[in-house]
Structure to design on (223 residues):
């Protein structure tokens, strides 16, 4: 997979390193000469250019990229890069970094963003996830389909504890994607049972989140 990353600062370089370790082809683009540190990520391609300029993106051959990541520290730049990547080059997957949470509402399909990652929101969500049992925590927002990645730790008193996954009538537009049980990560099958303390990850439409939380948190009659 070929990935172009706009922004070669600490965030961009860190993402590049992870992708390279997983065997992907990575191009880092930045207009600041001081950001071009080839020795820090020598396996990546580097391009000194303004990612907001069509001529630069032509040089980067963005049409050959499977994914573009707008990872600069400037939300305006990230929005422009996302829009150009999607509308001018038809990049299938565009991921954008949100620096200011007040701008998060802009990072949607209208600007070409498939996935918006807000560091402050993600950090607060991870804190909530660590301390919350029985409460739905939104981890990540997907622009397409108005869906979110959400997590809930199944409380001991939940009526669904001990129930087979296939026997649960999940709300419409929700999908259980992973069960984290202790140190194990389980791809749920219809035969797997839910256990108290399981961390359940769902992709769910935002309109269904409250219904999903109610279903998972409902108490047993003897609780």
């Amino acid at each position: 997979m070929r990935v172009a990353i706009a922004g070669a600062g600490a965030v961009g370089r860190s993402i590049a390193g992870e992708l390279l370790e997983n065997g992907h082809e990575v191009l880092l683009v930045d207009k600041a000469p001081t950001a071009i540190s080839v020795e820090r990520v020598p396996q990546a391609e580097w391009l000194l250019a303004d990612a907001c300029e069509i001529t630069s993106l032509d040089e980067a051959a963005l049409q050959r990229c499977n994914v573009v990541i707008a990872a600069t520290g400037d939300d305006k730049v990230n929005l422009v890069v996302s829009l150009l990547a999607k509308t001018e080059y038809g990049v299938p997957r565009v991921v954008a970094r949100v620096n200011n949470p007040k701008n998060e509402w802009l990072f949607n399909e209208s600007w070409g963003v498939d996935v918006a990652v807000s560091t402050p929101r993600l950090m607060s969500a991870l804190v909530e996830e660590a301390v919350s049992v029985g409460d739905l925590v939104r981890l990540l927002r997907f622009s397409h389909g108005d869906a979110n990645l959400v997590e809930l730790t199944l409380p001991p008193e939940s009526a669904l504890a001990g129930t087979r996954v296939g026997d649960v009538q999940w709300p419409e537009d929700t999908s259980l994607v992973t069960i984290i049980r202790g140190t194990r990560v389980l791809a749920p099958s219809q035969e797997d049972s839910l256990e108290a303390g399981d961390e359940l990850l769902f992709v769910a439409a935002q309109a269904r989140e409250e219904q999903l939380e109610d279903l998972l948190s409902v108490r047993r009659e003897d609780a």
Notes: The mean pLDDT is 88.
